[in-house]
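Aim 2 progress update. The chain analyzed this quarter is reproduced below.
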Amino acid sequence: MAEWTSATVVQGVGVTGTGNYVKATGGVLSAPTGLVKGDVGLGNVDNTSDATKNSATATLTNHRLTSRICSPADASPVAVNSDNCDQVHVAELSQATTFSIPTGTPTNGQFLTHSIYTTTARALTFTTGTNGFSAENGLPIPTTSVAGSYVLYGFRWNSLSSKWAFVGTTLATGPLSIAGGGTGTVSTLTGLVRGSASAMTAAELSGAVATSGSNATTLATKYVTGIKSATIDAPTTGDTNKVQWSFGQAITITRVVCSVGAATSVTIQLDERAEATPNTAGTDVMSAALVCDVTSEATTSFANATIAARVPLNLQITAVSGTPGSVRIHVEYTID
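Predicted structure tokens:
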């Protein structure tokens, strides 16, 4: 305790009168008019606004982000706010259900996943339009749930189109979508895509793929077409039996085309022979011998169009007229 008896300065503060004061043993205050943050151990505190802090980039290490799950009631329509929801989890649907356009303000690339279970297959409608669901990625949005299975349906927000673009599903059975055309199930396809990616017609799709008891798929014959060709220079009837073709599978011949290099003609026939006796004449293939000339000749008339696997298909030259120079033969077929 100290005493002052007249006007003086106590600890840097002017005082008057008489009295007592307690002398501090700590440091002197740096600003007589008030405290600063360093005086009380808060030197690292600044005045950053909450808005500025929220815009900073955060790095997470050994942490995880937990998806926000929305669990709407079993009712139609289903409406969710994408600001509060990353996954729509529907434990059961007891009726055909429409999923309304989500509310909220999504950000570009944001995902919204629907996890849907139904005891019985139900019709599903994902509402399209501005801010709605879209098949703009070329994948059709499924319209039916799968009975007895949880299925995920994924959508991604595209800020350019202002739509929730469908990006895929975990369907294990049921509809299978093929970009460019064709639908089916996991075990059977009823649609294929041309090389030009244009969708095939219904007639073309019929029987495109069949399944056997072992679940192995077998391509329909009309989709496996091949051509065998041969050219003989300066042909004579002595070239008979010199050209033979063999096929790894049974085939059906659909068309034979031939031509010569110069006048006049070469007459040909094909016959199916036995593998064990390739030099012995077999069963004629064409209904009549084909006369090859410079304008090309073709036939689709056959007495024996079905050729067994791994047997010789033999070329006969039965007549030559003039000096044809060469003869060219093309045999079109499908695999049985």
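The radius of gyration is 43 Å. The mean pLDDT is 81. These observations will guide the mutagenesis experiments scheduled for the next reporting period.
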